[in-house]
Amino acid sequence: MNFCPQCGKTLTTREKDGKERILCPDEEDCGYVFWNNPTPVVAAIVEHEGEIILARNAAWPPTWYALITGFLEAGETPSEGILREIKEELNLDGEIIEFVGLYEFHRMNQLIIAYYVRASGEITLSEELVDYKRLKDFEIKPWPLGTGKAVQEWQAKRGIFNEIIDFTR
């Protein structure tokens, strides 16, 4: 973003409230500041027929599988958002069993709102997904970022302490 969305002047970078921020140079008449707030994302540990569903996005490498996630839309609660995402991505109807937690994903500037959801129906993948796999709760190896932290905490509540996958090897 190069120009102020309110007045059209060329944006500058300066310190404001202790951080470097992009802002309008016309503080008196305009005052625009790009705060770069995190985007809310909903995620679910989806249980279907006694197993956890991990899915692979079409844009990911063949070995990457993760939780069902999606952006929270305007006007919906996080619980409504994740049930919508599960329906859109897997064609399953879900019931929220437990709120798992809130997790930062700094690299993507996201705040992840995670749930444990029991789902029913027949899986049909959306065009966004190319594959899925079923695992027992103890078979999932948490990953170090984003939704992996939700998996790790969810497992720990159940007495499961798996080693985190090391992506550097």
From TrEMBL:
Q: Where is the Nudix hydrolase domain?
A: 37-157
Asked if the keyword Hydrolase belongs to this entry, the reply reads: yes
Keyword Hydrolase recorded: yes
Which InterPro entries does the entry mention?
Answer: NUDIX_hydrolase-like_dom_sf (IPR015797), NUDIX_hydrolase_CS (IPR020084), NUDIX_hydrolase_dom (IPR000086)
User: Record's superkingdom?
Assistant: Bacteria
Arranged from A to Z, the UniProt key words for this protein are: Hydrolase
Q: What molecular function terms (GO) are annotated for this protein?
A: hydrolase activity
* Protein name per Swiss-Prot or TrEMBL: NUDIX domain-containing protein
Q: Which organism is it from?
A: Pseudarcicella hirudinis
